[in-house]
Amino acid sequence: MKLVYGTTNPSKLKHMKDILHDLDVEIIGANDLDMDYHIDECGKSPLENALIKAKTNYEISGIPTFSADSGIYIEGLEENKQPGVYVRRVDNKYLDDEAFIDYYQKVALSMGGEVKAKFKNAICFVLDKEHIYYEDSDDIADYFILTSKVHRKRRIGFPMDSLAVDIKTGKYFVEGGNLGNEERFRKGIRDFFILSLNL
Q1: Which domain holds residue 96?
Q2: DSSP 75-129
């Protein structure tokens, strides 16, 4: 079955293809379709944004579509200052990878140099108009320490990996330190599609 992943981020597309590589699905990205891809992500939670993107992409393409979204939540940060779903948008400006790293480094510095945080992830899959599935449980969340000490390595499309340190191992995500989170995330995503598609 062909599925559209509602993203224009090639790193995210590759990551999802890797997770689902042995399932009976062919995953294409929004860039593979001849369609206008501006979607207003006006949701107040990762799940709301995932639903908006998946439904809109399905309406445009007519092909079963899934979308994912995430939000950053930082322990101890005032609610009105939480990034939430505005992970890359600050003061109505889009943060490229380096601006993202600079911004969140300053947030970590303001919290004493390191602070506990999490990526709350959500996924929505629209098989057809009557069958819409979603998941946003802790099974697909990423917990980490946000540090002000930036790792020199970069992973294009995943700038937080240069600032996020695994709570158990003390390794940066960019060094593979998030294996526990990644394994849980991969299992959660695979289980979601296996159940949704009756595979």
Answers
A1: 2-196
A2: TTS-GGG--BT-SSEETTEE--HHHHHHHHHHHHHHTTSEEEEEEEEEEEEEEET
